[in-house]
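Lab meeting notes turned into a lecture example. A postdoc, R.K., suggested we walk through two folding results consecutively so the class can see how the record format repeats. The first protein's sequence and C-alpha cells come next.
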Amino acid sequence: MMRDTILTLMNEAAETTGAELQPDINHDTVLLESGLDSLGFAILVARLEEELGYDPFSIMDEPVYPRTFGEFVAIYERFAPK
C-alpha cells in the first residue's frame, strides 16, 4: 500500500536527518507540520524514486505542491505506472 511505503520512508528520512516526526501522521496532516524539513523531504522523494522507480513530480505537466500527507500520497498513487 502506497501510504505505508511513504510512511516507512518518511521515518527513515527523519532518522537520517535527526528529525522527529509528528506521532500520528494521517490524511490531513499538514506536511510542513509533519516534522520533516526541506532536506528530509528531498531525501524522502529520492528514496521514493529508488523504491518505486518513478518521480511523479518530474512526470507532471504542471507542478503541484501537496499541502497534506493525503495529497502527497494521492500524487504518488495517481502517477504510479500502470
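The second example is placed directly after the first for contrast:
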Amino acid sequence: MNDELLRMLELYRQGFNCSQILLLLGLETLGKSNPDLIRAMTGLGGGLGFSGKTCGALTGGVCLLGLYAGRGVRGEREHDRFLLMVEELVQWFEQEIGRSYGGINCAEIMGEKLASKTVGSQCGNIVGSTYARVKEILIASGIEPAGGRNG
C-alpha cells in the first residue's frame, strides 16, 4: 500500500468523507490547510449530503480540479483547459466507475449501505482511483500537483 492510500485510510478513520479526503490530499500536496473548504466539502459526501445522488468522489474530484485550475480571486482566470479537464474526469468516471458499479450515483454504488452511512471497500477504491485520475489530468494539462497553479 502506498503512502497516499495509507493517508486516505487514515483520513477515513478520522471521519472524513470521500469529497473531503480528496481536497485534504490536494491541500496537503500543496502544503496548505483550509478548514473552511474542508467543512464545505462535507455536503458532497454520500452523493450530496447522503441523498444518494452523484458520487462524492466525482464531485470532490471536480472540486479538486477547481482547486488547481479554477478562478479564486478577482482578476484571476480559470485555466484554459479547466472545463475540458472536468469533462475528461466525468467521462472517465462514467466509463470506469459507472460501468463497474451500475451508475455514478452514490445510491447505485453503495446500495443499501447508503441508508446506514456505512462506507464499503468500493468507496476507498473509487476515491483512490479518482485521485490518481485527477493527478493524471492535471499533469497532462501542464499543472504539477505539488507545484500548484502558475498564474
